[in-house]
Amino acid sequence: MTDTAAARTAPDRAAVHAWLQAYGVYVGVAVLLLFNIAFTDHFLSAENFRTQAVQVAPILIVALGMALAIGSEGIDLSVGSVMALSTSLVALYLGYGPWIALLAAVLGGVAVGMVNGSLIAFVGVQPIVATLALMVGGRGLALVLLPQLKDVRDPGMRALGSGDVLGVPYPVLIAVALVAVVAFTVRRTTFGRQLLAIGDSRPAARLAGLPVRRVLVYVYIASGALAAVAGFLATARLQASDPTSLGTLMELSAITAVVVGGTPLSGGRVRIGGTVAGAVLIQLLTATLVKHDLPPSWTQMAQAVVIVAAVYAARERGKR
């Protein structure tokens, strides 16, 4: 290959790489939609769309918190365990009413996030290690509080899990509202700008006088609180608290949604729109395999392929 041809190929590859980063997740969603329209029975029914929307809501809410953590050049492996802790606290405090149960669940998530953030910001523990410890300990605590499945019998929870406004289920409305809040926070607030600056270069952020430790703690508190809300909504939908299984592997689904959506693992950028599309992609992929009678193990393998492809597409051309 001549020097001229090599010079022409390099920009072409860079353009393809940039295009994949920006639009690859939307192409994936479109391909899955077209496949299901053509080959999946009753896919276009209103009931199916409602089901898919309700099921994607917890994934999306958890992925929003994960996007903040990854944007700060971190990660939060404890989100699935926070969902389990949330459902245990709901079962324990539901007797005082749904709002008290929600408050207890969110405070549990905030506490886990505060521990995660403090370990990372003040002790200097790597995010993957700190959140891994809470991933194990959080689910253990959830099982201590509620050792077995418990039915949730409350009219308010039943209405939240199955009710809607003008045909739009409550969990979907809540997820959309949280997307708007997180997007505004990242794009329009000082906290959002500080988060991205810290993710881009933590030493430079310190030299610039940014409150690095405080921002990191808030990031993981937000991630924990969002995971707790997702656990609360999942409990309302299932009408049961099951800390043994609720939130299992949710951290992988959330990471996949964020990375597929174009947020780099190296931090410094958060793509909320891409995260939404990534969550939809994960849910569509899972639903497609289930509807075509493939075992759950195929779903996990498919997610692994998607993660590798997303990380490859999102790789940076150089080190900061």
Number of domains: 1
Instruction: Write down how many β-strands occur, each being a DSSP E stretch of 2 or more residues.
Output: 4
CATH architecture classification name: Orthogonal Bundle
Q: Roughly what percent helix?
A: over 70%
Main sheet makeup? 2 strands, antiparallel
- The run of helices and strands is HHHHHEHEEHHHHEHHH
What average pLDDT do the residues reach? 89
Annotation field: number of helices: 13
Structural class: mainly alpha
Protein architecture, described:
By secondary structure, the protein is mainly α. It has one domain (15-314): ABC transporter involved in vitamin B12 uptake, BtuC. Helix content is 76%, strand content 2%. It has helices at 3-39, 46-71, 79-93, 98-123, 127-145, 155-162, 170-188, 190-200, 202-207, 212-238, 250-260, 272-291, 296-314, and strands spanning 150-151, 164-165, 168-169, 240-241. Strand 2 and strand 3 (168-169) form a beta hairpin. The two termini are 30 Å apart.
List keywords for this structure.
globular; transmembrane; ABC transporter involved in vitamin B12 uptake, BtuC; 320 residues; two-stranded antiparallel ribbon; membrane; cell membrane; 13 helices; mainly alpha; Sugar ABC transporter permease; two-stranded antiparallel sheet; transmembrane helix
In short:
The protein has 320 residues and is an all-alpha fold. It is built from 13 helices and 4 strands.
